[in-house]
Amino acid sequence: MPMIGIIVAFVAYGDQNSQSLSIGIIDHDRQPITAETIDYLKQMDHVDMKVLKDKEMQDALTSGHIDGAITFDHGYADSILAQKPAHVTITSIKGESVTGFVKSMLYQYMDQLTVLSEAADGDTHKFTALYKDYQQAEFQLQTTAVEDTSVDKGMTYTAVGFLIMIMLLSASNLAEIILKEKEERTYFRLLSTPITAKQFMIANTLVNLMVMIVQAMLTLLILTKGFDISLGVVFWKAAVVMILFALISVGLSLTIVAFSGSRNAVSALSNLIIMPTVMLSGCFWPVEIMPKTAQKISEFLPQRWALETLTQLQEGSKIGDLYLNFLILIAFALVFFLIATYKFSRNNNINSFS
Hints:
Layout: H1 2-13, E1 21-27, H2 32-42, E2 47-51, H3 54-63, E3 68-72, H4 76-81, E4 88-91, H5 96-120, H6 124-135, H7 150-175, H8 177-183, H9 186-191, H10 197-226, H11 235-258, H12 263-280, H13 292-298, H14 302-314, H15 323-345
Parallel strand pairs: 1-2, 1-3
Antiparallel strand pairs: 3-4
Helix pairs in contact: 1-7, 5-6, 7-10, 7-11, 7-12, 7-14, 10-11, 11-14, 11-15, 14-15
């Protein structure tokens, strides 16, 4: 069961680390400045530049062989020397989201050339000299690659979101055993032994809780050790959040059982409560894309607080700074256990849970 969330996370995010743009280049200008611009573009990381001809560009775009194309028309070099960059066109059928990075880098480079041209006062020879000096300058820009953790965090969020749903459903199914034992009369035979109703309930609750914790820890271990995915937070901190949610899952499942008179009622009530709240809390998609009303409702759901706590830990917040989040998670667990206990204690016949 824990593998479901991991598989979904890989489907959603697994390709993103290997993606690179393929851009075609068409040079109509045939000038040194244009050639220098093209050489600069070819040095960009995660971008594959291909020099194409006009007749090849359209076919390459429509067939998907390239993501976009940059066309340098006649007059590009002259426009740089005139400090009015123009005569360059970026084409893509996939939209701005694909070519935005290339466009920003190209325009930045064109701005640099324009500054040099302004210093040369439009003189080609001075511009060439300044450009060579610029390339051979003593100062060097050193760059350090920073690891992009957004994909790992996204995969963790998705996997945990599905884990939360599975934990709620599993806890409900395990708590349903209480009614199953009653319907099959096994429970009453147990009461004929030294086992009391209270002991039976405590045992069921502890087993349910142990299964939830094992399920959560197994998922986190598979993510970190099996697939080498960084949680973006120290393991034990993520474990604390999931253990608290395990308590919430068990408490909610007991509450559902306490208000149900049969196994069919448990199933119906579980579907009525669990799936809508899971969707509203952002387990399947970011809360930010939902309407404002739905976002407000999600603030009253334990799933939202568990995900929010994990996200804030990933962003560098300390556990001490999130004391309110943890208190709210503990409060949810206590409320569910108290409701279940009260409902069971108010039954006319506690031995039959009815």
